[in-house]
Design brief:
The protein is built from 13 helices and two strands. By secondary structure, the chain is mainly α. It has a single domain, classed as Up-down Bundle (Fumarate Reductase Cytochrome B subunit). A two-stranded antiparallel sheet has the order 1-2. The chain is elongated and about 100 Å long. The relative contact order is 0.16. Bound molecules: protoporphyrin IX containing FE. Protoporphyrin IX containing FE (HEM) binds next to helix 5, helix 7, helix 9, helix 10 and helix 11.
Length: 330
């Protein structure tokens, strides 16, 4: 059920966008109002979540340490896995954000017959995650050609590099395929591994189905119905310049694709997908481990009223003596 409900929801959402324009003629709603709302919710939601995280107290340095800490001169420190400078932190963060290094080092634990606990590499999850995130980024950047005129050089470059194999007409983009293959793998591993299926919730399946829906509908638009790209660009430029137009030659299927994208944007700030911003704010990653080099004083420390032993003894000296307790001051 946890997988079926999101699957049905995504199919219904696609049909709403498609039939809402094709049958009900609600072009202003699906082609302009909802995209504008989605962008506003996305940015406001993102800022709200980030500001709330940034405002949470982090009184202590709690970096994850995975290597030798900087100590005596003759002990070689590990400046990346146990960073003690800002540069070390930046290198570790960059490796994490660009190459998901902690996921690569993650191991799988299995109980084999015997019983024997076996640790093995989890390289497929890392490969699937890398393939998905990088192809998603390339697709997003490529889509900028709809929203810009003239098209920036790096968008044209990516378009040419991605279509390098030049298979068929329109040219087949490698990332269209890699995105769908990686997402299918990420979905199937949840469905077929009993342990993963047990812990997977609606909120784990919904983003996967939504992204697959976006990828499939985009794939359909480009390779099967071959929608009028010039008209789509007119619509996209109209949105950017706040003068929306809805050219008739845009395929109604396009509005299904767009509606799924809007759903993703609205859903994003309230979902686990916020790990995109969260990784930058994670105190276990973004702090240098210089706990032994610098004395960190909790900025929220306030003067605490204390009752010292000397004062205690002054208060109770006679009673203590009577009870036979040794006192420091006679
Ligand atoms: C999260 C955002 C989006 C994702 C992940 C996405 C994904 C895709 C994918 C995978 C394709 C298949 C072809 C390709 O790889 O380029 C595609 C095609 C397409 N997408 Fe998107 N899309 C997104 C947003 C949008 C938006 C906002 C528009 C509105 C302009 C749009 C319009 C189109 C059109 C018109 C095509 C057909 C492209 C062609 O024929 O070259 N997409 N999309």
């Amino acid at each position: 059920m946890n997988a079926l409900i999101p699957l049905i929801a995504v199919i219904v959402l696609f049909l709403v966008g498609w039939l809402g324009t094709d049958q009900a003629g609600l072009y202003v709603l699906f082609g302009a109002a909802i995209p504008y709302i989605a962008i506003v919710v996305f940015f406001c939601g993102l800022v709200y979540r980030v500001v709330r995280w940034a405002a949470s107290p982090v009184p202590f340095r709690i970096p994850t340490t995975c290597g030798q800490q900087k100590s005596l001169d003759w002990i070689r420190p590990n400046p990346v896995d146990n960073p003690y400078t800002l540069f070390g932190v930046l290198v570790r963060m960059a490796l994490e954000i660009l190459f998901f290094r902690s996921l690569l080092r993650n191991t799988k634990t299995e109980l084999k017959s015997g019983p024997r606990v076996v640790y093995s590499s989890n390289i497929w999850l890392w490969l699937g995650a890398m393939a998905f995130h990088w192809s998603f980024l390339v697709i997003l950047i490529r889509h900028m050609r709809f929203f810009t005129e003239p098209v920036p050089f790096f968008v044209t470059f990516l378009h040419q590099a991605d279509g390098f194999f030049q298979v068929g007409v329109p040219i087949f983009y490698a990332t269209s395929f890699i995105l769908l293959a990686a997402l299918s793998y990420l979905l199937l591993r949840r469905l077929f591994s009993p342990q993963l299926r047990y812990i997977s919730l609606v909120n784990d399946y919904f983003p996967l189905f939504l992204l697959i829906g976006i990828g499939l509908s985009g794939f359909w638009l480009r390779y099967i119905t071959k929608t009028d790209i010039v008209a789509v660009k007119e619509l996209a430029l109209g949105l950017v310049s706040f003068t929306p137009t809805f050219p008739e030659s845009v395929s109604p299927l396009f509005y299904g694709h767009l509606f799924l994208v809007c759903t993703l944007f609205i859903y994003f700030p309230f979902s686990k997908l916020m790990h995109m911003a969260g990784v930058f704010l994670s105190p276990t990653r973004n702090l240098a481990n210089n706990n032994r080099m610098v004395r960190h004083i909790n900025p929220w420390n306030y003067p605490v009223k204390v009752h010292t032993y000397e004062e205690y003894e002054d208060d109770f000296r006679e009673k203590m003596k009577k009870a036979g307790i040794v006192v420091e001051k006679e």
